[in-house]
């Protein structure tokens, strides 16, 4: 799996270590120029705590090669989502190459909140043969990591991974909340919409801002094409993405207004 120094990959690394043994887990660090020093440090500390192997493959030179190749086509445009996603896809390619070369299974580290609203990159961080926490909302990722530490005689998940603001680190100063509502709000909306089958109007009546609800519901609908291409996930709820979950992709279908 890719080890970013974030909480999702930390939890997945801990799950994998418990499931198949620490000696069978390889964490791959792939820092870019936008990766913070503390993220690399946190990832290495996690690996040390778990006792898993690591490999570091910096991607700065590869990013420059992509920029050089695309420069004639991208000339005159501003840095944006395309360039951000290239970083994720470089990492996805490297991880798949390792899996192919050594017969490993690549574990995807995306959580349910990200999968729900499409905060993930096709052919990038979505690559893999198994999505270990695809049915685990982000807020539960945090609570599980805190639980793991409380059950252990020593710290498993470094405290800095738990307390720092979540970020994809694909551009300077980026945090998840630049694009998404705070996770406690997002997860409650998603819980009501996905698990409880509540309408947008019902979710607003429960106290959520109408504009935020409208945005989240639209993101869920628009991300269905990504979820159709995601690796199979471990199911822990009665409303997991995958088999049994289908939303229209190409139609005039729209959700009821809030």
List the helices and strands and how they pair.
Layout: H1 7-20, E1 26-29, H2 37-50, E2 53-56, H3 60-74, H4 81-102, E3 107-108, H5 112-117, E4 130-131, H6 138-151, H7 159-163, H8 183-195, H9 200-205, H10 210-222, H11 224-227
Parallel strand pairs: 1-2, 3-4
Describe this structure in words.
The protein has about 260 residues and is mainly alpha-helical. Strand 1, helix 2 and strand 2 (about 55) form a beta-alpha-beta unit. The chain has a two-stranded parallel ribbon. The chain has helices at about 5-20, 35-50, 60-75, 80-100, 110-115, 140-150, 160-165, 185-195, 200-205, 210-220, 225; strands at about 25-30, 55, 105-110, 130.
Concise synopsis of the structure shown:
The chain has 258 residues and is mainly α. The protein has eleven helices and four strands.
